[in-house]
Amino acid sequence: MSSPKTHAAAAEEFLKDEARTLWHDETLWHVRQKRDTAAQKLPEWETLRNQASQIKDYVLSHLDELLVQFEKNALANGVEVLWAKDGKEHNEHVYRILQENHVKKLVKSKSILTEECGLNHFLEEKGYDVVDTDLGERIIQFNHQVPSHIVMPAIHLKKKEIGEIFHKHLGTKEGADDPGYLTEAARIHLREKFIQANAAITGVNFGIAETGGFVVCTNEGNADMGTHLADIHIACMGIEKLIPRAADLGVFLRLLARSATGQSITNYSSHFHRPSPGKKMYLILVDNGRTTQLGREDFRNSLKCIRCGACMNTCPIYRRSSGFSYGSTVPGPIGSILSPGIDLNKYSTLPFASTLCGSCSEVCPVKINIHEQLYKWRQVIAKEGNPQLAKKWSMKLAGKVLGNPAWYNFMGKTARTMLKITPDSLIYSKVNAWGKKRDLPEVPKESFKEWYQKNRKNE
Ligand code: SF4
């Protein structure tokens, strides 16, 4: 079995295009700054974060009861509720619903959960043309890519590239990259798809246990357009997306848009409770590893995530290596603590793709201790996982040297001597990853300890 690609190896691909790396970094930092401005305008920002965190803590510790309450209320509203233990079961439910209702054409609004379950691929194999209606998602669907960001799926593409994609798939003018013109072309194209669709698939941002209703947030109104026109609405929801009461919703809606894009509110926060007369509404509640994560004491509160993407926009590693380098449905800091829970071997390098600066935890609207969990995963991986051998040995060696003053002094002296006589061609060669992008500092004549003993010891 071949080893999964490491984060560093995947990042190297992205980093080859220096101009794109810089632009990607700056673009996401700009979104982070917009988030800061929006947050600073609310004096109660920290109170909201605390409330959201506490509500989610309550949800996680009462998940069993709240799910039963949610199901009961949804059923009473006339919604058909289905449970899926994993992605396979989820996809089979969707397929069966489409078959039973003789659905020929379907549209889908943005849903990370359906990405996680591989729904598009599954349905395409069954002969369905799944049309993603979120603009960013449609762009990457044309480009045969997966989202590189959970809120801005096509953030890795420049408008010139989007112009080329639209020229190829939608027949827009060659070389045209005006966002207004391209958006209009997408709108005309998608209207046609909305009108033809018999079924609309959406994700769920918040399920409300008290009412059995749920909320879907979009900026483009595409979820509403799809669900209002089609006879069948299939809503796919991770079981952790619950909140206890409708009154709690305001806390999360205020935090979500500000954290995601710096907007005060998402353009469309649509509430669904029951099917319209003559129509059907299905709700699929998906576990897919969530209850296992809930049982891991150190990592359970990663399930508080409301998928705002703020931890990605602030992360220096994500900004410079893009979402593709993570190889997981949810990239960035939160993805690096969720993914090892799904497959420790495949995602064993992700918790190391972090500076542990803590910026992710600082911006997280539900106060997940992301950087601490990254550190915890490193410990788990070092103990029972599959850390890279080179890393394992170098850490062992470092532990020996740092734990023994005599060894430390000897190694320091040796390194200072060796660095002086080692030719630059070796220091800045492929063999030394550290030398690839940086100049090493000038080697000092002596260590700090030697200098201290000479100059200050007797002061
Ligand atoms: S972990 Fe926090 S900051 Fe990151 S996406 Fe989830 S809610 Fe947003």
UniProtKB/TrEMBL annotation:
GO terms for biological process: lactate metabolic process. Residues 295-316 form the 4Fe-4S ferredoxin-type domain. It comes from the Bacteria. One of its GO terms (molecular function) is metal ion binding. Keywords: 4Fe-4S, Electron transport, Iron, Iron-sulfur, Metal-binding, Repeat, Transport. PANTHER family: LACTATE UTILIZATION PROTEIN B (PTHR47153:SF2). This is Putative L-lactate dehydrogenase, Iron-sulfur cluster-binding subunit YkgF. It comes from Lunatimonas lonarensis.
